[in-house]
Design brief:
Radius of gyration: 23 Å
Largest sheet: 4 strands, parallel
Shape: globular
CATH topology of the largest domain: Rossmann fold
CATH architecture of the largest domain: 3-Layer(aba) Sandwich
Number of strands: 8
Distance between the termini: 63 Å
CATH superfamily of the largest domain: NADH-ubiquinone oxidoreductase 51kDa subunit
Order of helices and strands: HHHHEHHEHEHEHHEEHEHEHHHHH
Structural class: alpha/beta
Length: about 450
């Protein structure tokens, strides 16, 4: 399928500079196409003015949670005596089915560098780190070259562009753990510690990297910032569809057995049907859409009847799922949902840091039950046990959001496809577990 998209600076702030040959946009080309104009404007403003402009634009974090970026910046200490501060980019894109940040890192490295310069001005940071997924080797090489170019051009280092602002930037590659997507686990890993989440409070804004005030933002969040500083908050709010209360554009995509899997920059509020049919090209010949996930493996399944939903935080949330990363996964009619859930929960169980009991013990328990159901050896009560696990591992029951995200697809699969779980319950011993030393009464 061939899809022609007319990308312009006014409509596609993230991707309008992307080259047709797929090569990265390096400094000279980026600079010639309005590159670092937003950073120059930010350097001439006060930190409070930069924060206010991003707040007014309504930018919400693009890592999955959707927390307002400007509000997050405003939580950094107002005390200027705390002059050692850090700006961190979370580029540890380990969510299965998600590849939007990789696209931006490899095609538009200077967009991220510029976004981090602006963010550093807003939060008064003197040093920044890009915490990068270790498997993104090509992205690491591209980023390091872009950072060197920016430093040589005077946009990094001491007294950036004569503004009096000092800021330098470094790439730090992780060891490949999903839990590092949680910002405090990321901070621990950056310090050379085990990647366990930290207790909050204190939040990173008060005590982050090496005990200093720290702000952590996602790749796509930071890549939105240069356009906002360059063209203004009203322009940014006008980019989204009228039906959506969320501002700007979003990297959205589809994977699975669709005709044209990929990722595209689209207005917030674009319907899932448009994304699925017009961009992803619908299901491959002979296949039928059975279910889909809106934004990564840790989001609840939705059904074909939900395709007319606008893709934004509120509409997807009201339907019972989360927009997450907005990289959708199409499930076709050949897939058994119990087998699919076994695959997902094995991943989440393996990636648990083991810090809290519900996650450490509950996720392997769910894997054991799902494996039994896949083998046709499930017992009466197994589905109810899975439902209790979904509750016991839900929001507020664990140390971080890993387990709540892990059980989201499980709880929705049981809700929509319970019969497939029931089909895995065998008939041995009257479907009753035999307690050691006691035989069940089959009379």
């Amino acid at each position: 399928m061939s899809l022609t998209i007319n990308r312009t600076a006014e409509t596609h702030p993230l991707t309008w500079r992307v080259r047709d040959d797929g090569q990265p946009v390096w400094f000279e080309e980026y600079r010639a196409k309005e590159g670092y104009v937003g950073a120059e404007k930010a350097l001439a403003m006060s930190p409070e003015e930069v924060v206010a402009q991003v707040k007014d634009a309504g930018l919400r974090g693009r890592g999955g949670a959707g927390f307002p970026t400007g509000v997050k910046w405003s939580l950094m200490p107002k005390d200027d005596s705390l002059d050692v501060r850090y700006m961190i980019c979370n580029a540890d894109e380990m969510e299965p089915g998600t590849f939007k940040d990789r696209y931006l890192l490899e095609k538009m490295p200077h967009l991220l560098v510029e976004g981090m310069i602006i963010a550093a001005k807003a939060v008064k940071a003197y040093r920044g780190y890009i915490f990068l997924r270790g498997e993104y080797v090509e992205a690491a090489n591209i980023l390091r070259k872009a950072i060197d170019e920016a430093r040589e051009a005077g946009f990094l280092g001491k007294n950036i562009q004569g503004s009096g602002k000092d800021f330098d930037l470094f790439v730090h590659t992780g060891a490949g753990r999903y839990i590092c997507g949680e910002e405090t686990a990321l901070i621990n890993s950056l310090e050379g510690r085990r990647a366990n989440p930290r207790a909050k409070p204190p939040f990173p804004a008060m005590s982050g990297v090496w005990g200093k005030p720290t702000c952590v933002n996602n790749v796509e969040s930071l890549c939105n910032v240069p356009g906002i500083l360059n063209r203004g908050a009203d322009w940014y709010k006008g980019l989204s569809a009228e039906i959506s209360d969320d501002a700007g554009t979003k990297m959205m995509g589809f994977s699975g057995c669709v005709n044209n899997p990929g990722v595209w920059e689209l207005p917030m509020g674009t319907t899932v049907r448009e994304l699925f049919e017009d961009y992803a090209g619908g299901m491959q010949e002979g296949l039928i859409l059975k279910a889909w996930q809106p934004g990564g493996a840790g989001t609840d399944f939705l059904l074909p009847e939900h395709l007319d939903l606008p893709m934004d935080y509120d509409h997807i949330g009201k339907a019972g799922s989360r927009m997450g990363t907005a990289l959708c996964l199409a499930i076709d009619n050949r897939i058994n949902m119990v087998s699919l859930l076994l695959n997902l929960e094995e991943f989440f169980a393996r990636e648990s840091c083991g810090w809290c009991t519900p996650c450490r013990d509950g996720l392997p328990w769910s894997v054991k039950i799902l494996q039994a159901l896949v083998n046709g050896e499930g017992q009466v009560g197994d589905i109810e046990t899975l439902e209790r696990l979904c509750h016991q591992l839900g929001p507020g029951k664990t140390f971080c959001a890993h387990a709540p995200g892990a059980v989201e697809p499980l709880q929705s699969a049981i809700k929509f496809f319970r019969s497939e779980f029931e089909a895995g319950i065998g008939s041995k011993v009257g479907n009753v577990r035999a307690i050691k030393g006691i035989q069940p009464n089959l009379a």
